[in-house]
Structure formats: structure tokens, C-alpha cells
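[09:14] KT: can someone run the structure on this one? pasting the chain below
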Amino acid sequence: MKTYNICFLFVLLSVFYQCKDAKKSSPIKTTLYKKKKINAEKKPKEEKKIEKAWDSLNSKNTEVFLTEFGKQNTATKILIKTDFGNIKIRLYEDVPIHRANFVFLTKINYFNTTVFYRVAKNFVIQGGNSDEMYTQKERRKYGNYLLKPEFRKKRNHKYGALAAARQWEKNPNKLSSPFEFYIVHQKNGAHHLDNEHTVFGEVISGFDTMDKISKVKVGDDEWPINDVKMTVEILN
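[09:31] RB: done, C-alpha cells below
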């Protein structure tokens, strides 16, 4: 009987130490940890910027977001549709942040509930805002971010120039509104605005449409009595 107990005890001790040794030599947890660590080290930080969701744009990451968005969205031709006809626009590639911003807003259909809310005859037609709830909601969603100026010597306020509107008061850095734009309708240009507003594109067809819009009846604030609605789409 004692012999049996001793044997049984010996077997239990053998099993215990084998299990203990097996746990010590198990590579699973260490291997998994190493793999995660290696992947974290190899994964470039830039990937996080590229994979940002469209609704992640805000006032703190504006330049980073639009730089990466611009690399992935290289369109330069835009079509503005109105009841008076179409206006085809070429966006300048050497004004990358403003170009990317306009393409971004076009892709999320921001402009499709906006209007040409200012028609200053023989000067400019200005659009990109409205009193529609969707328009105001989208503006609040992105925190009314602003764009740093991108002045270029050869990008001036000639006839048909597309430029960004901005606040003049309390804006010493001449930061652009991302939402509102204007098109120069003065045949001789509006060169007193050079280096005051960023010019980021130009009209390449649809000057007759601009002429028609310029003739609509407006109120004292230059807002058309009847809204001049628009939809904007990317051509290429």
C-alpha cells in the first residue's frame, strides 16, 4: 500500500513539473507581443493622415488634412450649374490648400444648398452661403476653419478670377473663408484686391452666364431678390 502511494505521489510530482516547464517555455504571449510591437514600429505615421474620415476636418488640422486630401484628389476642373447657365472653372494647382478645400466641399455637396448671395454689378458675383439649415449645419460641423493665404504673383484679380472671400476686420493674417468665394466680373479686373484675397482659379467658359447673373434685381445689401441657386460638380 505504501509503495502504491509513493508511486502515485511520484507521478503527480512529475506531471506538475512538466506543466510548469511547459508554461515557462511557451512562446505564444511573447510572440504576439513582439508582432504587435514590430507592426507599430513599421507603420508610418503618415497613414493616419491619409486615412482620416472626411468629417474629421477641423480648425486644428486644416492644413494637414487638406494637404493629404489634395494628394488623393487632384481634380482641377469644376462646373457650377445655375438656372442662368453653367460656369466652368479651372482650379490652380499652385494654390494647393485652396484648391483641395474647394474640391473637398464639392465632394460633400456643401455648395448644392448655397446661392450667389451677393451680386455687385460690374464688380463681383459672390457665393457659397445661404440661410438653408443644411448649409449652416455643415459650417458648424467643421468649426468654421480658416485657410492661410496663398498669394502668387501671377494669380491676380483679372476678369473671371475665382477668389476666396474673407473678413477684413480683426484678420491681420488675411485668412480666407473656406466656404465663400467670388468671381470677378469687372472687365478690367479688380486689382486693388491683389494680395488681399487668395485667387485660386479662373473661369474658362460661361462668361455669358456671369453676365446674366449680374443683371438680376438685388436688395440694398446686394443679395438677389430671387435666390440664384447653384450646384457644383467635379469634371476632372
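[09:33] KT: thanks! The chain has seven helices and nine strands.
[09:34] RB: yep, looked fine to me
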